[in-house]
Amino acid sequence: MRKSYPHQLLKIRGMGMLRFKQIEAVFFPGESFTPTRVYSPIQHIKGSSLNGTLSPAAVRALARGGITTVDQLLAAERKDLMNIKGLGALKLREIERVFFSAQNARQAPGADANS
Questions:
Q1: 58: exposed, middle or buried (C-beta count within 10 Å: 0-12, 13-18, 19+)?
Q2: What percent of the chain lies above the pLDDT cut of 70?
Q3: Average pLDDT, the chain
């Protein structure tokens, strides 16, 4: 542990600053390491307006298919989205939930039966 502190310890998959500080407090009392730059675990696609709206994996898959804006996504056909490499059923459901849930609720049969 002493040999890996601090740089190699920070490179461990899943190691964030919170967990690092907890380990540091237990195993290295009195020491405090703060990196000059903390890398964000979320990778954004440069130029995509979908960042933060959808999961990073869905945004990356859509970008591979040339879709980086909400307008492009709304104009795309479902069959075209399914042809994008890496955009499977789970990501498609996420897109539908985020962008089409209000639309689907209005079109759902019996949606206003209790009104």
A1: buried
A2: 82
A3: 81
pTM, entire model? 0.53
- Between CA 11 and CA 68 the distance in angstroms is 31
| Residue 49 to residue 69: CA distance in whole angstroms | 5
CB atoms closer than 10 angstroms to residue 22: 11
What is the rounded CA–CA span in Å between residue 24 and residue 33? 8
Cα 108 to chain centroid, rounded = 29
User: In whole angstroms, what is the distance from residue 86 CA to residue 28 CA?
Assistant: 43
pLDDT (tens digit per residue) in 1-41:
888 898 888 888 878 888 889 999 999 999 988 877 655 55
> For residue 80, how far is the Cα from the chain centroid?
22
Checking 60-63 for CB contacts under 8 A at 24+ apart, the result is 60/86, 61/85, 61/86, 61/87, 61/91, 62/87, 62/95
